[in-house]
Amino acid sequence: MLRIQTKECFMSEPFRYRLRVRYSECDAQHVVFNARYGDYVDLAMTEFMRALGRDYDALLARGLDNQVVKLTLEWKASARFDDVLEIQVKPLSLGNTSFSLEFLILNAESQQLLCRAESVYVMMTTEPFEKTRVPDDLRAALQEGAVGKVCDQSG
Asked: Which residues form a coiled coil (predicted)?
């Protein structure tokens, strides 16, 4: 996989997705259950792709899909019930058939880093379900990033 060069402005103004922690996402101590962070990464990736103009339905209409092949999570602190989280998303690497994204999950109010995640995606065709090249338009969109865009679903 080749490392892509991200623009300096992207580093200072990443795509940001905001959500509020719901009661059902927490354990008995009102701390976010560890498996929910994978859900948060998936939600942020979906909104990041939408911000790039490459939403999931548009990919499927082209006979394409992406599949998570690796997800790593590194917890730094706990998120709790009713916290507003900010998930910053940026591309890390771009290969012929795959790409990876970094997710920084922060407490939106304090900006404390709660979790760092990295996810690797492989492009697939839908029929037959086989690995394929990242399309040129998606490649260009990933290289550009969703600079400074915000999706706020925190209410």
From this structure: none
